[in-house]
Each structure stands twice: as C-alpha cells, then as structure tokens.
Amino acid sequence: MRVLFIAAEMAPFAKTGGLGDVVGSLPAVLRAKGVDARVLIPLHGPIRTAFGDRLERLFSFKFSRRTGTADVHIYATEQDGVPVYFMESWPFFGEGNSVYTDIDWDRERFVFFGQAALAFAGELGQGHHGGAPWMPDVLHAHDWHTALVPFLLHEARYQPGWESVASVLTVHNMAYQGWDAGGYLWMAGVPGRHNPHLVYQNKTDNLLGIGLAYADKLNTVSPRHAIELHYPRFGEGLEGLVWARDGDFAGILNGLDMQRNDPATDRALPFSFDWHTFRAKRIENKRALQHEFGLEQLDDAPIIAIVSRLVEQKGMDFAAEGLRWVLAETSAQLIVLGSGQAEIEQEMRQLEWDFGWKAKVHIGYNVDLAQRIYGGADMLLVPSRYEPCGLTQMLAMRYGALPVVRETGGLADTVVNYDDGAADRGTGFVFLWEEPEAVRHTLRWAIDTYRHRRPAWERMQERAMRTDWSWDRPVQHYIALYEQALHKAGRGDVDLTALARGH
Ligand code: ADP
Ligand code: GLC
C-alpha cells in the first residue's frame, strides 16, 4: 500500500507543535509494517537554511490554475528511511522565516498547496520524477492546511488513474479551520462544493469542514477527543459534520518515537537514566536544571514545569492564577518554557517578577531545553481546556516527571489519576474544573504526595516510565483506517491484506 502524507509540518524539518511530531514519526513506523509511506510538505524558508545541504533537487513541473501557471520545484531527502518531498513555488513557498504567516496569506498559500500537491502526486504516478511510477493508494491529509485535498481528489476521480485513490483526514486541532476561504477557492478555480451536509450547514467555504465532508475516512488523535468533537463545546461549529460522518470517524491515540525520546540515550540530558536507575540518577538532572535556570539547588523543593504554547487552549490563563497561590503557599519551584499570546506571556513573566527566587520563565522555543525539563522537573502541568492528544504529558511520563492534567481528550486517555487510598495506582494527577482553584489544590495534593509519600511517588514514576507510548498499537489502527478508506473508494475487490503488506 502506498500512502502519501500531505501536511504543513514534519519534524525535524518544520515543527511548531505536535502535528510536526506525528508527521515526523508515524510514516517510518508504517514503513516498518510494509506500508510505503512518503511525505510531502512545503519548502518553508527555514528548512532551506537549516537543511539545505541535505536537499536534492528532484524535478520541476508547471502547474496551471485559474490565476495562471506556476513553476513548481520539488526537492527530496530521506529521513529515517522515509522519502520526504518539499515543494517550492514562488511566491507561495520557499521563502520567509517561519512556517506560518498571517491567516489571509496562509489560506491562499495552502489552497495552492492542496492543488499543487494533487498535481505532484499525478507527476509521481506518471514517473515524471525520473524514478519508477509511484501512484499513491491513499492521500493522508492533516488539519485545515491540507483538508482541501480530499475534495480535490473527489473531483479528480473522474480522470483515469485516480478512480480508486482514497483519502484520509486527521484532525489534530479543530479550533483552526481555514474559515471563509470562499474567495480564495474561487480565485484558484476550485469548483463548487455541493456535498449536501456542507451546503445545509453553510460550511462550503470552510477548509476543514470541506475535508470532513469529503475524506473517505476521518480520525482525530485520541478516542476521548473523538467523542468530544461531537459536542458544540469542542466541535467549534463543525460538530454537525462530525455527526454526519460519525460512522467514518475514528479516535486513534498518537504514539511517541520511543527511540528518539529515551532518557537512557537522549544527548540533551546531562545525565542518562532509565526506569531501573532513575531513583539514584535522575536527581542529577534536577540539580543541573536548577543550575541552568538559576534556581536554588534544593533537592526537596519540587519543580513544577510547563512546556507549552502559551495560549488559551492550553489553559495557561487560569493556570497562572493558580500557580500564584502555589508559589506563595509552598516550597515548590516553577519553570516555564513556551511562547504564545502576549497577555499570557505577560502573566507568566509577572510570576517571575513576583517570585523571582523560585520561578523562572523562558519565553521561546527550544527542543533540547524541553527535553532537559522533562528529564529534571518533578511534575509537568498541562491544564488544557481541550487537548486532542497532547504529547508533552507522554514525554514527561517517559522521562519520569509526573503530569498534572485537566481531564480532557488525550490527557484523559493517557494519565491515570493517583489513588492515595488502598489502591496503589496512578501515573499523575487529574482535575476537571477550568479554575485557578483546581490548579492550586491539585498541585498542592501533588506536592504533598511528593514530600510525604515518596515511595508512592517513585512507584508512580516507575509506572509512568515503563508505559508503552510507542506507535506499535496506533499504527495498526491507521493501517485499518487506510484499508477501510480504500474499501470506500471502490477497492473492495482487491486483497487489502496483501496490499497492506506491500504487494
Ligand atoms: P500542541 O501540538 O497542541 O502544541 P502537543 O503536546 O501535541 O501540543 O505537542 C507539543 C510539542 O511541542 C511537544 O513535542 C513539545 O515538547 C514541543 N514544545 C512545545 N512548546 C515548546 C517549547 N517552547 N520549546 C520546545 N518544544 C516545545
Ligand atoms: C495538536 C493538538 C495536540 C496533539 C497534536 C498532534 O496540535 O493540540 O493535542 O497532540 O496536534 O496530534
């Protein structure tokens, strides 16, 4: 089976959040299972700067649409055995110094990307890249940026070669949709979207909505969030389409790259450890982290950490208020790494100004520093209002920091609440209310456990570190989803199991 991932981000080339991690790790796992997975992303300006020497110019083609003809240049490289293609086309992709720009330009750029991506797949299918023809069986789109692809495929199915190509759309974040894209779609010559659900719900100009209506199969990134998306509170106006596609909508938990994220081998950590040795060795990382942030090196002061986009989705506004209490009332230290909305950054900075000796705030994005925080902090606070999956809590657990999370989406699916009664269970601490008081009291409960029930704390750490967060199970669900999508696209007659094995 041939699967082409079409996405805006892929780690390590371009990553602003978990989308990049998923596109950067799932394809290699699929390949290990015999699926010929490849990836297409735009050639964002920073990729040229950081990875230019690894890019090989593969081929160019002309792509005509209503506004004119574009020259499209394709570059390629391999990452963990996965063929990765990068698309350059002036003025849309190839320049600039960020992955995303402003929403107007991004809508226009990603409408183009969707169209040109389909043309690119056609070129590969004809062997124009110089290699053997490679026509994908499944186009796998991600989030609003590439959600137009399933519709364009639906239109292309009337052409030879495209009849039975299937599409899958993964929703990583429903809150970003590519709204009101009608003008851009019209300018680009994209035909009318006449799906009755779209028309009836007035979403024909909503890029993510279009994907929800036209993809053969859909999923989001945790089972709990798949349920949540049926409600207006989480569906962000698209819950009607989720209901309409209920039978095609799955929830598949994200996995982690367990090799790359391993405290026993991670070069970002000053001291390595694993679940056998963490009781003696992990403390060295904590001391190093305290030193790095200019905090007093107190072994007994629990470090609460935040590694996050500082935005309302992540609950950072009410968390800052709860943290203020915790800093005033306890001996805990606080480390914040992230950036986002100006007013939330400001609230965090204010915590540092008021509690400078025990609270440190680093506004920015730094992958190695994030790993050192997972490896040295005692707890990671993730108070998200909604969280489709969330990778930081899994990373924290893998590295022995216990997550303190709000019970939503993937956080609810991955963190088991501590039970300090007779049962010895748990891998973290869970609360429900989006309130400063909930953050305050749950953190105090965690701090109390850390200080006074250390053996129970360490057993939780061990359980968290030993949990299998790998892609092993999720990848089987993705293969099944691809098979179902092919079935819907009219490939019910082929031997899907043989196809999945790569024959
Ligand atoms: P989201 O995609 O909603 O931002 P996830 O938890 O799925 O949330 O993924 C976040 C990813 O980005 C994780 O790999 C995390 O380590 C990383 N990350 C978030 N903020 C930062 C930061 N300031 N510096 C470095 N890495 C970060
Ligand atoms: C989104 C979600 C996050 C998820 C990530 C990868 O950014 O906010 O919860 O883990 O996508 O699927």
Percent in strands: 15-25%
Separation of the first and last Cα atoms: 7 Å
Count of helical regions: 20
Q: Identify the overall geometry.
A: globular
What do we call the CATH homologous superfamily of the largest domain? Glycogen Phosphorylase B
Q: Characterize the largest beta sheet: strand count, sense, and whether it forms a barrel.
A: 9 strands, mixed
Uncertain regions spanning at least 5 consecutive residues: none
Secondary-structure content class: alpha/beta
Number of domain modules: 2
CATH class of the largest domain: Alpha Beta
> For the residues shown, what is the average pLDDT?
96
CATH architecture title of the largest domain: 3-Layer(aba) Sandwich
- CATH topology-level fold name of the largest domain: Rossmann fold
Strand order of the largest sheet: 3-4-5-2-1-6-7-8-9
Rg over C-alpha atoms, rounded to the nearest angstrom: 23 Å
Helical content, roughly? Answer: 40-55%
Features:
503 residues; alpha/beta; Rossmann fold; 2 domains; 9-stranded mixed beta sheet; 6-stranded parallel beta sheet; 20 helices; 15 strands; globular; binds adenosine-5'-diphosphate; binds alpha-D-glucopyranose
Task: Describe this entry's structure for a reader.
The chain has 503 residues and is of the alpha/beta class. It folds into 2 domains: 2-255 and 472-500, Rossmann fold; 278-466, Rossmann fold. It contains 20 helices and 15 strands. The chain has helices at residues 18-32, 45-51, 103-125, 149-156, 182-187, 196-200, 207-214, 223-228, 232-235, 239-244, 278-293, 316-329, 342-354, 367-376, 392-398, 409-414, 436-452, 454-466, 472-491, 496-500, and strands at residues 2-6, 36-42, 56-65, 68-79, 82-88, 138-142, 166-171, 217-220, 249-251, 303-310, 333-340, 359-363, 379-382, 402-406, 429-431. The protein has a 9-stranded mixed β-sheet, sandwiched between helices. A 6-stranded parallel β-sheet has the order 12-11-10-13-14-15, with helices on both faces. It is globular, with a radius of gyration of 23 Å. Adenosine-5'-diphosphate binds at residues 17-19, 21, 307-309, 337-338, 365-367, 370, 389-392, 395.
